[in-house]
Amino acid sequence: MAKPHVTIIGAGITGLTVALYARKDYAITIVDAGPDPRKHTHTQGATYSGMDARHISVTETTPWTYEHRHDLIVKNVRDGGWMCIPESQLSRTEQQWINKFQVHTKDREGHELTTQAVIAYNTAGVNEWKSLVANYDFIKPIANSTYMPMLSRSRDVLREEFAFDSSLDENSVLHEGSELPSSLSPLRTHLTELGNIGYYTSYCMAFYSRTLCIKLIEFLEAEGVKFSWSTNVSDEIIEEQEHKLLEDFGDTDAIVWCAGVTPHSSQLLSKYGILIQGVMGCWLSIDNPGVNEACKIYGPEPLNYINITPSGNQLLLSGGYGFVGTRPHSEAKILAQPLMDALIEEVKRWFPDCKITDQAFCIRPSTPSGLPVFATHKTNNNLPVIIAAGHAAGGFTQAPATAGRVLDELQKVLV
């Protein structure tokens, strides 16, 4: 008996881990709008448009809808806000997303419940990553250490961030007034200038993410998973009355939607009442002055935490939040240039002699609440569509937990 055929839309980390979990029970085709990342550099999707590093942790992302961000979401990024789009140019759906975001910022009880849901999701993701590391030789974190140093500009901020993180992750430990480990010696000078405020640590792992995804693609191909690159999904994948998708796909028994944000996908998902827009993050590569351990630095809005990952003679750094709606990457990166400028300015505070070797922009698909979408719908011809999207900055952390949920749902809808 032939295995049921599942089509996964999106070959980012979520789609790849769904395929990894589902490959034994289903025939899998993965469709992606971008080119094969083994052969080309591309700007589509959060997985591949950044650089080769991601951090995963219980608190890697929490819902963004804190009360103080009610006004930040409409304040221009040049002035320390999140808004990259001129107010007069906002589309109807972009304005709708902003309005819903602001509603969530006023709902303290709802925000607390959403935060707990995301922390539980992150915890499940971290635990699944531990299992993957134990079971697959090619899935390995950068270092054996799982307690990542967190730095900040002031003692008050350090204490505040530690209080928040430790309330969500009991593994956090405060090292107030302590000297940084030798693996972070280039940062000691700046911390001394700030008054030897110290740091804290939280459970966290770093991965060379793009490298890992390429290894996943090669493993999945060897397992019989088919890939269709540079393929834009049309409305017929959701709305077509016939059971056929695109000619190359043949019949399918279920669709798993793990794609990022585009004007087309946003419009398509809105048919199910799902609102997902893009929030920009920025990446820098600088010459490595001797940092040998991944760490984080807490910066001012709109930067928040800057993730720092050593990669040979380079440091890979990411940070920033800029609302870019459904704008294509080419337009969004121009709108978000002030966000990149802010990241560069903060990085130079900590690495004053750094030479910037590369820059990149990464659009993260996000819901107004900060809670990812997980829902099952059916097309007009009763074809199941499992939607697992809108993970914001937590997609990498949550990916294997999402894959497990998708697998459970496939078993329900394909009986």
What does this structure look like?
The longest helix has 28 residues, at 108-135. With 415 residues, this protein is α/β, with parallel strands linked by helices. The strands form 2 sheets. Strands 3, 4, 5, 6, 9, 10, 11, 12 and 13 form a 9-stranded mixed beta sheet that branches. A 6-stranded mixed beta sheet has the order 7-2-1-8-15-14, with helices on one face. The chain is globular. The chain has 13 helices and 15 strands. It has helices spanning 13-22, 46-49, 69-72, 92-105, 108-135, 155-168, 188-193, 209-222, 236-239, 263-270, 329-335, 337-350, 395-413, and strands at residues 5-9, 27-31, 54-57, 147-151, 173-176, 198-207, 226-228, 254-257, 277-287, 295-298, 305-311, 314-325, 356-366, 373-378, 384-389. The two termini are 14 Å apart.
User: Roughly how many Å apart are the termini?
Assistant: 14 Å
Q: What percent of the residues sit in helical stretches (DSSP H or I)? A: 25-40%
Looking at the structure, what is the overall shape? Answer: globular
Pairing-aware structural class of the strands and helices? alpha/beta
Mean pLDDT: 92
